[in-house]
From TrEMBL:
One of its GO terms (biological process) is methylation. InterPro entries: Erg6_SMT_methyltransf, GPPMT_Stmyces, Methyltransf_25, SAM-dependent_MTases_sf. One of its GO terms (molecular function) is methyltransferase activity. This is Methyltransferase domain-containing protein.
Amino acid sequence: MTSTILRTDFEKSVAAYWNTHRNDPVNLRLGEVDDLYHHHYGVGPYDPSVLKGPEQRIIGELHRLESAQADLLLDHLGPVGPDELILDAGSGRGGTSIMAHQRFGCEVDGLSISEYQVGFANDQAARRGIAERVRFHFRNMLDTRLPSGSRQAIWTNETTMYVDLGDLYREFARVLGFGGRYVCITGCANDVTGLRSKAVSRINEHYTCDIHPRSAYFRALADNGLVPIEVVDLTAATIPYWQLRARSSVATGIEEAFLTAYQEGSFHYLLIAADRI
């Protein structure tokens, strides 16, 4: 079964990375704050008073910022009714899927190529008594195995740098119903300077990913009948998260590369909301 889901050496290396980085404190310690575990970054200003208190206040503030990012993404999904189905493509440990169910009351399916993440997320759903409504699957987002036109909304949150965008949006266009909403939050390279940036290269190397240029998103969306209705540049909004994380006990050493890339303009942090036509 694994060989049909992980079809390339690159996909296998990505899965191995997330299967082995299961004890990374930057994810686990933040999730322990309220038992919602994310695999993405944060947005918004931080409270500077946390720097004067115990370390746990910094951890709590970092978690507040990453949950604020998830709330911002969910704000852009549009109206979702309790009888509709939505998809979290690259669902990590399941935090945003659980938040989506809590907000909309709908069914959520999450996909990940990390068997460890899928197991962790399903355990989280079971502990909350929502496993029949929030389900996580060991599947490739390029081949969701979901019925055509079955989803009202799909999102990706910092996962598109692991896939070919044309293949991804072709599959999403198939799975979304007419008028369905796709929301993406991602880091992307400045088309002029990003692919030459040492900081961007460092991020690629650290996460075993392949950051796309900004233009690639809009080209692939247009090619597959996904029309952007809103684009929000979150670059300035995410910098405080990285500044605070750099001063925390969960810093991993990649913080400087992110701050350099954002501040030199070689790397952008975007939210794109698009409708299926």
